[in-house]
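User: Can you predict the 3D structure for this chain?
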Amino acid sequence: MGVLLPGVSYLAAGRRRLGTAVTLLSLSLYGGAAYLALARRDDVLTWALNPDILLWMVVGLGVIALYWVAVLVTSYKMLRPLTVRPGARLAGSAVIGLVCFGMASSTALGAQTLMAQRDLVQKVFPSGSSKSQTRPKIANAKDPWAQIPRLNILLLGADDGEGRDGTRTDSVMVATIDTRTGKTSLISLTRNWMRMPFPEGTKLHDRFPTGYWDPNGPKEQDSYYLDAMYRIIPAEHRDLIGPSDNPGADVLKMSVGEALGLKLHYYVQVNLAGFAQLVEALGGITVNINYPVPVGGNDDKKIPASRYLDPGPDRHLNGTDALWFARGRYKVKGADIARQARQRCTVKAIVERATPQNVLANYMDLAKAGENLIRTDIPQTILPAFVTLGQRIKNAPITNIDLDKQKNYPNGRNPNYAAMRKLIQQHLNATPKPAAPAPKPTTKPTRKPSTTTKPPAPDLAAACAYQPES
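Assistant: Here is the predicted structure, written as structure tokens:
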């Protein structure tokens, strides 16, 4: 009983005043923990995302552990029989030693987890001294969604692999989120788009008024592709961007936002070369594979894939295979569009895999992976609000906004950005129609239902279902 409720052993030993005080203190600690867990969860989340408070939590955890061990050892000394044989006394001391060791080990693990959380927050999420040309100024950090009813986040997959000069953003997506309901729509951009626009009134727009391309150059200009902007524009036009901790990300936030007609608030950049580490930390992901997905291979250099991911439902992928499921394109029909679809399914699979239980069970590995793989301009001050929003996203549908390749970008040389903006606004502003009342019975023939209504955006659950190619 003294292990579970320090102080009762003092009472059993006849030390009433000391026992009462220690028991009440122990009950207060239990009651305070229960109160925080049940009634002040938002505050707990805020503390868990504040590096200074996390450090004090580590100190507090150590103090509580010392208090618990001291009470346990002194209680044993007060209650142990004095007439037992040496072997029995040695066994009793060994049991108490093991219990104290277990408590010390648990405390050390807790402190290690808190320090890992502190390092993650400090290394990944910027403090108030960070610089950004595109990050919004939040008036109320406790409720930023009152200011941002629709949150738009740029998702970048950056690759600085072998044979690459600098970093290319091979994967560019936008997640647009209703912060009230958590409903999320994903928009994929094609890496070889040219003439990416910039907002009027910016220096980049003044320099490239008709978009990012060379009007006097050849038809195909790979140095002006979307996936080259992150690397080339800061290197060649740094003075047009302004102070920034990640000028490439700021360039893409401005340009992608202008192309899609959205204000992009934040970015999250993942290093694709280490993406496998993140998936491994989650214990892998489960996806449906509808056709053989190549692992490796290069169409331009005529290098074949080393192997293929076999089609099948509910395929559990490790980190390396998950990376190639999201990236493989060697001799895949409609390579870029097919890859974009698989990347959206990968995002969905990660969201499903990141249950609270799984995150807690693998937290140390996840924190270590996050420190090395993720860059973002989401500030520390609004992280608690993002945690709450994350739960809404997890419980809400995720859909895809199809930008219509056939009409709007049959190739990447001159995409119809105006038409894309219209499609996006139609999707985001659409409201579900109320159910029509059942028609009264009639003997007159009825007209066929109209087929001109635009179908709703596909839910990713359907888009990522197992539908093998014939």
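The longest strand covers residues 168-178. Confidence is low (pLDDT under 50) at residues 161-165, 441-455.
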